[in-house]
Amino acid sequence: MTVSKQNHPDPLYVIFEQHLFNFQESDADRKTFIGNIISEYLTYLRKMNIIIPHALEKAVIEELGSQVNTMLVKKIYGCLSIDEFRKSTNGTQKRTARKRYSKIAQK
């Protein structure tokens, strides 16, 4: 039996969406935006008792940064900024992201 990705989306993507749809820092640069997502994701992993060996932490953070940057580029394609994208989204997308986020935040 396989689990549908739609029912259980990747927690990294859920955290990414939450940050994207609730973006408030118009002066924050992309690096800070990505860093905040990675930091929250690593906190989530720790809460789930998933430990990243210290020797691999830097490589994992770099890979996560690359993945989040790719998600960002794909998601805001056609918009000049995160803020412009956020303003163009509808309430349904924001509510869906908030519901998914609340599910992983409870864990």
Overall pLDDT score: 87
> Pairing-aware structural class of the strands and helices?
mainly alpha
Number of helices: 5
Largest sheet: none
List SSEs in N-to-C order: HHHHH
- DSSP strand content: under 5%
The stretches of 5 or more residues where confidence is low (pLDDT under 50) are: 1-5
Shape verdict:
globular
Strand segment tally = 0
Radius of gyration: 14 Å
User: Helix proportion of residues, in percent?
Assistant: 55-70%
Can you put this structure into words, describing what you see?
With 107 residues, this protein is mainly α. It is 68% helix and 0% strand. The protein is built from five helices and no strands. Helix 1 crosses helix 5. It starts with 10 loop residues before the first helix and ends with a helix. The N terminus is likely disordered.
